[in-house]
Amino acid sequence: MAFSLSWRLVRVVRLAERSCDPIRRLLSVSSFFFAKKIIPFKLSDIGEGIRDVTVKEWFVKPGDQVKQFDDICEVQSDKASVTITSRYDGLIKTLYYKIDDVALVGSTLLDFEIDDLTDAVRDDAEKSEISLDKVEPETITLKKEKVLSTPAVKRIAKENNIKLTDVKATGKDGRVLKEDILAHLQRISVDPSVKIPSSMTGRTVELKGYTKHMWKTMTKSLTIPHFVYSDECNVDQVMRYRNDVKDSLMKRDISLTFMPFFIKAASRALEQYPQLNAWLDEKTQQLQLLDNHNIGIAMDTPNGLIVPNIKNVQNLSIFAIAQELNRLQKDGSKASISYADVSYTTFTLSNIGTIGGTFMKPIIVSPQVIIGAFGKARKLPRFDNEGNVIPVNIMSISWSADHRVIDGVTVARFSNLWKYYVENPMHLLICP
Ligand code: COA
């Protein structure tokens, strides 16, 4: 609707500009230029199939004067955070969402008051790719957008607290039908039949942000037959190396944990088993083996679980991996992980051992074909080569692989190699 409004305005300017009568032309153009106009600023499509976002922060308030490209607000989708910037110079009139409200793509985020519409309108018209010549000048209105529907449909929308402008209309001339409201309700609601009975008390919590993404990916994962393989690993050496250097690295503001060793060990083992650093295309039944080891790290953040990745681990040192992990943890704690950081993961690791646990069954994230999870490292009694009982720091590792394309022996061999690198970390230190 913003576009249709915009290109109609451009049409007026162009018609006026083309007019032979110079006075009429001057009047048309100048009255158009100098009147202040209110225009809606919509949440445009941010790709990746995202249908809604949660408003996390407003950087503006009504009455603020902003310039093109100024930050307007921070929104969070089920995948990452995005800063929305202004497309116009103008005055903020009305904000339509509060912090933590969910905004649908295409809905109006705020209204702008604009002095000089020409640039903004011309831009929008260009983007809309609509032939300006098809528009009649008398159709121009600057009213707020009006949505066509019947009183019965409006009542259903009101009862369900739905703005008609947020609903995708499928009726004639953009009319919102009852089916559109029902489809919209289905999209935005958790199963409406699950209600807390009046005999009980409790509260309803909306699923949003990262949790909503988890719902989608995990539901898809249910279709994958998981082959699960677990083993234990001696982490004495890794602990020794880490303890030797962690204080000096801390002085350089780098926190070195066990994770960079585990990540690098995975990358080195993947060099031998490239079929595990792969995406499965279910449609074509092809496996795409990837040269980039973009290793995803399951991360517990104040906003829930998110899995950013460290790109091209095959080329990174343990130090560089630690730096990157620190950066992602910092961004995760501020809910500001970018799309780039969550895109193109080829392999995933989950260290739930920071909290506890021994063995687990991690869940594969499609289209990847394997995931690993670590339990908590603990000092446990084990036999040495002479049969003496000695204390050893033991950590469990559990792998889940997509059994449609990966057989158990491959997983076991890969796990053995990963374990070899972790138990002999010197091999990880001498190459990038
Ligand atoms: N066993 C014992 N101790 C462990 C450990 C393990 N498996 N993993 C980490 N630790 C220790 C670290 O060495 C560090 O010790 P320190 O206090 O002496 O420095 C401490 O626990 C905290 O480590 P942390 O800061 O969390 O860093 P990390 O690099 O080990 O882990 C993440 C980073 C992102 C993986 C971790 O913070 C995290 O979010 N884990 C949860 C993952 C998750 O949610 N998985 C479930 C998915 S469904």
TrEMBL record:
Top-level taxon: Eukaryota
**Compartments where found:** Mitochondrion matrix
EC number assigned by the record = 2.3.1.-
Asked whether the UniProt record includes Membrane among its keywords, one would answer: no
Q: Which residues form a coiled coil?
A: none
The catalytic activity, as recorded, is:
N(6)-[(R)-dihydrolipoyl]-L-lysyl-[protein] + 2-methylpropanoyl-CoA = N(6)-[(R)-S(8)-2-methylpropanoyldihydrolipoyl]-L-lysyl-[protein] + CoA
Cofactor(s) the record lists = (R)-lipoate
Residue intervals of the Peripheral subunit-binding (PSBD) domain: 148-185
Check the record and name the Pfam families matching this protein: 2-oxoacid_dh (PF00198), Biotin_lipoyl (PF00364), E3_binding (PF02817)
An example Gene Ontology cellular component term from the record?
Answer: mitochondrial matrix
GO MF assignments: acetyltransferase activity; dihydrolipoamide branched chain acyltransferase activity; lipoic acid binding
Main localisation: mitochondrion
Signal peptide positions on this chain: none
Main EC class the enzyme belongs to = transferase
Q: Keywords in UniProt for this one?
A: Acyltransferase, Lipoyl, Mitochondrion, Transferase, Transit peptide
Q: Boundaries of each Lipoyl-binding domain copy? A: 38-113
Family according to the record: Belongs to the 2-oxoacid dehydrogenase family.
PANTHER family in the cross-refs: DIHYDROLIPOAMIDE ACETYLTRANSFERASE COMPONENT OF PYRUVATE DEHYDROGENASE COMPLEX, LIPOAMIDE ACYLTRANSFERASE COMPONENT OF BRANCHED-CHAIN ALPHA-KETO ACID DEHYDROGENASE COMPLEX, MITOCHONDRIAL
Q: What is this protein called?
A: Dihydrolipoamide acetyltransferase component of pyruvate dehydrogenase complex
Natural source organism:
Atta cephalotes
Q: Identify the gene encoding this protein.
A: 105623638
